[in-house]
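[step 3/7] fold_predict: job queued, chain A
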Amino acid sequence: MTCFVFVTGGVVSSLGKGMAAASLASILESRGLSVRMIKLDPYLNVDAGTMSPFQHGEVYVTDDGAETDLDLGHYERFTHSKTSRLSNFTTGQIYNNVIRKERRGDFLGGTVQVIPHITDEIKNLVRQGAQGADICMVEIGGTVGDIESLPFLEAIRQLGVELGPHRACFMHLTLVPYIASSGEVKTKPTQHSVKELRSIGIQPDVLICRCDRPLPETERRKIALFTNVHERAVIAAIDVDNIMKIPFGLHEQGLDELVVRRFALDVKPADLSEWERVVRMKDEQDLEVQVAMVGKYVDLADAYKSLNESLDHAGLHTRTRVRIHYVDSERLETEGVHLLKDFDAILVPGGFGERGTEGKIAAVRYARENQVPYLGICLGMQVAVIEYARHVVGLDGANSTEFHRTTEHPVIALVTEWHKDGSTIEQRSEDSDMGGTMRLGAQSASVRSGTLAHRLYQSDTIAERHRHRYEFNNRYRDAIEAAGLCVSAVADFDDLVEIVELPDHPWFLACQFHPEFCSTPRDGHPLFIGFIEAARAQRMQAAA
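[step 4/7] structure written:
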């Protein structure tokens, strides 16, 4: 039977509940346990795909096409388990489910309330997502004390009672700040956070204390006394220079052993050799490259989270320190492409909307004409096609119908019908719900032999995750290929263009999908590894 670890957070958000949960899960996996992970998000949006990056950061996509919270990226990067539609639920989705049932008459006209109807729905979905696992980690977004999280917190409180102490464990993440002006470590935020949690009926079993320095034993003891948590269950999560080191710190303090003993599990000792190898690779990096990421959300730390991680993973597997420089694409429109002259490689990530598009097109042209390694992802592929159509093929004014609905040459356009898999046909129009009509999830594609893409993947077929509405317009494919741009991968069933590349360029590749969703520190990803190897070669050539 599945045991549950419920992860909550207090006082301030963004302390790293997802990272702590993923790190603990990775240690438990190394002890031979199967682990599932679930994130409960306390916002009312039903469709994360329509949320603003300025508020939500990155939207992460699973194999089965769920648009989810970016914490799921940490789950997949730190563990071997795959997330799915059953791994992330928002308050909006929960309420939407219950209201649909009410409209169908499932409740026989009874009054629908938070308790029991909403909490029952939460509990049912948590149980579904946990099926088949030895341990399920359930992270509750938001902070204790906020009204938004209360239905989730009430649901896990009920689950704790229903499951009993041998199948439920509550782990609470708090902040223990150091006040420089007084030279003190303050435990009050933790004390008050736990007091708030206990007021709604949840007694934490483990405390994870975020701090920027070792937690003094006197303060650890004080926290234990005030919160009714055993001293050995007060775990210090000290800031590290490499997130791959987090599992080691938690393991050294016995966090995984606390969980194993709580559930009376007979398992092998932890084997962190995989993580030791990853940390060692970080220490073996012998060259630094400068990568320009040309985007429109460059001031948002979380907007390109998976991309940043993927470039870092590629650095591990190529012995390269990757220094990312965020270049606002609008600056290229006003100040010019000379801003790119000192970089070893250029990457244009995904995005939506017209703002900054011409700057991205200018970045593509600079990379193409100056033989600088280029990687385009999603919109990064679309602007590469637009640039090539305009300046090489000679299609003046070529554009995407997303940016110019009546463009004379719509080389990128809204595809109205496509196969989701071998049998299901999906349709969309300009009037369709934006989030509900994206091409989403893992889809297979065939890779042309003899191409850069084939050399990188070492395979005739690939499966990558998508998140987009607009596609390469195959009406222009012959003309663009005849001019020299190679289509090196196409989607199975639909013949939609998935990868384009330039054969007469040191390294120029752009893909419609999002490879960053499938990169891990253990294995990296072929496209990012190839890209950083090209940047490395560019750097060494410049230094020669």
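[step 5/7] annotate
The chain has 18 helices and 25 strands.
Residues 526-543 form the longest helix (18 residues).
exit 0
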